């Protein structure tokens, strides 16, 4: 029924853009109901639109499979035995995955012990500067360095860019006499690690929002949502002063040793943005990405047509371009005219000397 509805869409490239974002979230956060169902729908889309349409979607599945195979190899290596935690890393190829995927402590045994951490790395050329998040010295930073060394040893000439916003972690945390296993985001893990009791002081450690940001370098907007999740949600792992929902730079936080729950394993959900619907800024960014992809497709179609026909009138070229691209989207005559103009400027095309 979904594929039947898909056939009626005029702008199938816009569908592909949003489908890729949601598929990336399902794959990275293990939220897919069925891998077989995911592959089945991609196969049906391939029948409808051709292999070029699903090339990036299939590349995402391939990246996840290669990452699982690499994790098995890493577990059998000497580097893994010295990590001190169970590390799972998904290595992604930037050309297959969307530029941004909406996202959503190992010290003294008496306070916190890291059980697992999953981060996401990027293989190849980065779309931007690497995240400048500060990892605490010790097991965590050593594990990231060990994985990087292992990966680059087997894949020379590549570069890893760690995307901590897309990771999650399992932590064993002791609250008084009771221990709970918390499933948190990587950002939440870094925040909780700041409150680890190192035995140097008898008083509870107190940190303000500004101090937490300075120690972790987590960006301001996601930091507020991470702190809300830990201090203002259903499970209040941190105590916040003053007791309000909003987080300001001057608010202070302490570890809640009195936390109680009947569950041993607890998932701490991240407070979502104000709306699941795109903001105007996000919508403009999505339209810009889609528009850029359309420009490439239009120019490629024009060049293909002219290589075959050698010479055409402007109107015939516009009509032929629309015909070739209608299976993905309906380009306007203005977009095609702009594409022809840019190709003329770059000397891919030239006007006829007899009838310019």
UniProtKB/TrEMBL annotation:
Residues 108-121 have a biased composition (Low complexity). GO terms for molecular function: ubiquitin protein ligase binding. GO terms for biological process: ubiquitin-dependent protein catabolic process. PROSITE patterns: CULLIN_2. Pfam families: Cullin, Cullin_AB, Cullin_Nedd8. Keywords: Isopeptide bond, Ubl conjugation. Residues 1-231 form the Cullin family profile domain. InterPro entries: Cullin (IPR045093), Cullin-like_AB (IPR059120), Cullin_homology (IPR016158), Cullin_homology_sf (IPR036317), Cullin_N (IPR001373), Cullin_neddylation_domain (IPR019559), WH-like_DNA-bd_sf (IPR036388), WH_DNA-bd_sf (IPR036390). Residues 108-130 are annotated as: Disordered. Belongs to the cullin family. This is Cullin family profile domain-containing protein. It comes from Coemansia pectinata.
């Amino acid at each position: 029924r979904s594929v039947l509805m898909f056939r009626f869409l005029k702008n199938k490239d816009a569908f592909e853009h949003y489908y890729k974002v949601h598929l990336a979230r399902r794959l990275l956060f293990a939220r897919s109901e069925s891998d077989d169902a995911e592959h089945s729908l991609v196969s049906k889309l391939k029948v409808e639109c051709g292999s070029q349409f699903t090339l990036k979607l299939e590349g995402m599945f391939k990246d996840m499979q290669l990452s699982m195979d690499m994790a098995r190899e890493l577990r059998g290596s000497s580097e893994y035995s010295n990590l001190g935690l169970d590390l799972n890393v998904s290595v992604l190829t930037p050309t297959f995955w969307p530029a941004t995927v909406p996202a959503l402590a190992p010290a003294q045994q008496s306070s916190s012990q890291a059980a697992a951490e999953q981060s996401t790395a990027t293989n190849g050329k980065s779309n931007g500067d690497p995240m400048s998040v500060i990892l605490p010295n010790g097991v965590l930073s050593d594990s990231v360095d060990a994985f990087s060394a292992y990966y680059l040893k087997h894949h020379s000439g590549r570069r890893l860019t760690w995307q901590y916003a897309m990771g999650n972690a399992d932590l064993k945390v002791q609250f008084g006499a009771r221990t709970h296993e918390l499933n948190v985001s990587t950002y939440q893990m870094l925040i909780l690690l700041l409150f680890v009791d190192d035995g140097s002081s008898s008083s509870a450690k107190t940190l303000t929002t500004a101090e937490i940001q300075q120690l972790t370098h987590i960006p301001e907007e996601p930091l507020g949502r991470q702190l809300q999740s830990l201090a203002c949600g259903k499970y209040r792992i941190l105590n916040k002063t003053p007791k309000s929902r909003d987080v300001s730079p001057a608010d202070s936080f302490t570890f809640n040793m009195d936390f109680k729950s009947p569950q041993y394993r607890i998932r701490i959900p991240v407070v979502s943005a104000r709306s699941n619907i795109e903001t105007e800024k996000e919508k403009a960014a999505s339209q810009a990405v889609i528009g850029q992809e359309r420009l490439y497709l239009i120019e490629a179609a024009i060049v293909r047509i002219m290589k075959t026909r050698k010479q055409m009138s402007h109107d015939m070229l516009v009509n032929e371009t629309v015909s070739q691209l209608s299976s993905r989207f309906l380009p306007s005559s203005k977009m095609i005219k702009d594409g022809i103009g840019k190709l003329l400027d770059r000397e891919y095309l030239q006007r006829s000397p007899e009838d310019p």
